[in-house]
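User: Hello, can you help with two protein structures?

Assistant: Certainly.
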Amino acid sequence: MSRSIRLGLGCAMPKPPIISAKEVLRLLLKYGCELVSVKGSHFKIHNPTTNRTSVIPVHGNRDISKPFLNAILSQLDIDSDDFFEFH
């Protein structure tokens, strides 16, 4: 039995794909977010629709973990369903 059912949480969020930070950055820019600044390997992204900002670390071709990707989308106030359908 899955943890979400045992906890009575109902349907869980769709599982995000495992993708690199570069790919996440590219998709967010395509989604309509704007690049605000770059400091080293950290890219600051702004969502003009919701007026929210998040920082994405881009370290080579390393993948972003699923919880971290969900946190980025939450910080930018982007619905994960919409983002992954857009993907």
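That covers the first. Now for the second protein you mentioned:
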Amino acid sequence: MVLNFLSTVKDKAISFAVEKGANFFDDFTRYGKMLQFDIDTNNKTLFAKVELDGENEPLSIDIKKYNIQQENDKYFITIIQMECSKKWLNTLIADFVISEKFEIPTEYIKYLSMFKLI
């Protein structure tokens, strides 16, 4: 019970930090604005809603299952199940994202470690 509560608090803190912080990084703001970010580290799910420049409606991204693994001194993320609010993008995700391993850039490892995601 206490561990679940602490995990929920941790997830809320991560969600808040990412949601607010993303809008201050040029790497993200050149594409648009983060409207919502929610993570559940126990169930390994993530939801984001972003307002992309030039789009009329926000894009919803729902990662229903992800996995982070370490190989030697590198970390990788694999998206196991994911959907978004654009049909054509779901097709692209199915073709190029699902089950593929993507290396997490080294500059982000410190944040994963800080939030005990690795």
